[in-house]
Automatic annotation (TrEMBL):
Keywords: Glycosidase, Hydrolase. Belongs to the glycosyl hydrolase 43 family. This is Glycoside hydrolase 43 family protein. One of its GO terms (molecular function) is hydrolase activity. The keyword Hydrolase applies. InterPro entries: ConA-like_dom_sf (IPR013320), GH43_C2 (IPR041542), Glyco_hydro_43 (IPR006710), Glyco_hydro_beta-prop_sf (IPR023296), Glycosyl_Hydrlase_43 (IPR051795). Residues 353-537 form the Beta-xylosidase C-terminal Concanavalin A-like domain.
Length: 545
């Protein structure tokens, strides 16, 4: 068995004999992780590691309400959409809700009539808390609208939705002290729009104004990606605008502009150029420390969040330590992503509460008539409702994030009710996907491995199958951006056999998302067949046996 473990994990010390030493000296000598303040008081050392979340959580927007932090992110074509995460320490996060079950019901978002919303859907959100109400805004090039969701209870809802045109790209929702509400948005030229009091659209009788003519200017004139990703803050009476731009031949760069008045004048500077860690904003702790939350493109696992210490010097937030994002932070250690961001699931539910944990998202809007946790208790049933030509077009593919530095996903499927032409299994979902599963053809079933690494899906291997239950596994190695996946099957859930060939995973812009584990079932000949997934297990590391 080979396992690759996260650097966040601390190895368990084997049996140690000691006598005559105080508890203080024991822990200090073994790990340096515990400090004794008295004979009966032990405090755990505060050590967090970057990235804070080694998984695809891009375009973060973050707030603190009293002692609790909340964060929204982008999941684009996934449903439910606009995930809301909660933390007490800025390090350990768990998904508590979504701002919308479905963004809208277009053909693209429903995977209907050959249309898709891959890489589109809803983009960067803005999370705010104002006068006892939580607000999350986003925008969609798919629908051509800007959306604002609001609730009094961010964890339980319900959420109210308003939408309007036009699309305000990469906007920042901003409640000013004078009671007026704005959105700052744009690319290169940053614009300011005042909203109506009920947030139903741009305030009647007003037009958007240019806030900053060229927000990329602090990074030079040779710009490939103009300034975008606006996030606006007001600290000690001054306005601070965070943006990202990308100089040609350089890296993703954080710029910050500041002004004494919203109308300007604005002055700007480069705030960070380190490994492309960029795009985000500011958060303060309840004890007065400041951090910038940013993310980094990290190959096929996606865009992963970092926290960057901030010091205030001459009225400017100064990011990093000598311009570098540190690998460790004086914050609590991570407890891992499972549960919280990802989760293993036995699919066992009380019949009256047949819902899915928040870690799950459907690939596009689901067809709720054709999946069930109650038709066979203890199993997830996926029933085909139509004929499709590709796994990328099928509805009701149920997904979770993959995560680094390495991870494994396993499932078991009862395939006894598949129809000829059906394909079902475990996918690593992106444009250049790979999957292991079962094809039913001519009254027979075969275990297959399919790879779309070349751009077109090809069956790489097949093994005849004579039984009605099959175990499937996929492993992902993202360490040092190796981006390598392997696929396995088992006929007893104990002994695993590799199948097919390694998949070199690639982050592609048409999907604009890190790879995801997915459970799927689709028909190529006739609808009505179904499969039952017994469980989904995921864990850090790679197991090849």
């Amino acid at each position: 068995m080979i396992r690759i473990y996260s650097p966040l994990l601390i190895p368990v010390v084997s049996f140690i004999k000691w006598t005559g030493q105080s508890l203080f000296y024991f822990f200090r000598s073994i790990a340096g992780l515990f400090f004794l303040s008295s004979m009966f008081s032990v405090a755990h050392a505060q050590t967090a590691h970057n990235p804070i979340i080694f998984a695809d959580v891009p375009d973060m927007s973050m707030i603190r309400v009293n002692n609790t932090y909340y964060m929204s992110s982008t999941t684009m074509h996934m449903s439910p959409g606009v995930p809301i995460m909660k933390s007490k320490d800025l390090v350990n996060w768990h998904i508590v809700s979504y701002a919308c079950n479905v963004l809208d019901g277009t053909d693209e978002l429903n995977l209907e009539n050959g249309k898709t919303a891959y890489g589109k859907g809803s983009w960067a959100s803005s999370l705010r808390f104002h006068n006892g109400t939580f607000y999350v805004s986003t925008f969609s090039g798919t629908t051509g609208k800007t959306y604002i969701f609001s609730t009094k209870n961010i964890e339980k809802g319900p959420w109210q939705k308003v939408s309007f045109k036009p699309v305000l790209h990469d906007h920042s929702l901003f409640f000013d002290d004078d009671g007026r509400v704005y959105m700052v948005y744009g690319s290169g030229r940053i614009m300011l729009a005042e909203l109506a009091d009920d947030l139903s659209g741009i305030k009647p009788g007003t037009t958007s104004q240019t806030l900053i003519e060229n927000a990329s200017k602090p990074a030079g004139s040779n710009i490939g990606l103009p300034a975008e990703g606006s996030q606006l803050f007001k600290v000690n009476g001054k306005y601070y605008l965070f943006n990202i731009c990308w100089p040609k031949g350089g890296m993703r760069t954080v710029t910050i502009h500041r002004a004494n008045n919203l109308a300007g004048p604005w002055e700007g500077r480069v705030a960070l150029q380190d490994r492309g860690i960029a795009q985000g904003g500011l958060i303060s702790t309840q004890t007065g420390e400041w951090y910038a939350y940013l993310f980094r493109d990290f190959g096929s696992v996606g865009r992963i969040p970092y926290l960057v210490p901030v010091n205030w010097i001459d009225g400017w937030p100064v990011l990093g330590i000598d311009g570098i994002v540190p690998d460790t932070l004086p914050l609590p250690a991570s407890h891992g992503l499972n549960p919280g961001i990802v989760i293993s699931d036995e699919f066992s539910r009380n019949a009256s509460k047949a819902t899915l944990p928040a870690a799950w998202q459907w690939n596009h809007n689901p067809d709720n008539e054709h999946w069930s946790l109650s038709q066979r208790p203890g199993f997830l049933r996926l029933t085909t409702s139509r004929v499709d030509t590709s796994v990328l077009l099928t509805r009701n593919t149920l997904t979770q994030r993959t995560y680094g530095p390495a991870c494994t996903g396993e499932t078991a499927i009862d395939i006894s009710n598949m129809k000829d032409g059906d394909c079902a299994g475990l996918i690593l979902l992106q444009k250049k996907f790979g999957w292991v599963g079962v094809k039913a053809e001519n009254g027979k079933k075969n275990i297959v491995m399919v790879s779309a690494e070349s751009g077109d899906p090809k069956e790489i291997a097949r093994v005849p199958l004579e039984q009605q239950t099959i175990w499937l596994k996929a492993t992902c190695n993202f360490e040092n951006q190796e981006d390598r996946a392997l696929f396995y099957y088992s006929t007893d859930g104990k002994a695993w056999k590799a199948i097919g060939q390694p998949l070199h995973m690639s982050y592609t812009l048409p999907h604009f998302m890190g790879y995801r584990f997915g459970l799927f079932n689709y028909a190529t000949d006739q609808p009505g067949g179904y499969v039952d997934f017994d469980f989904f297990h995921t864990f850090h590391g790679i197991s090849e046996k």
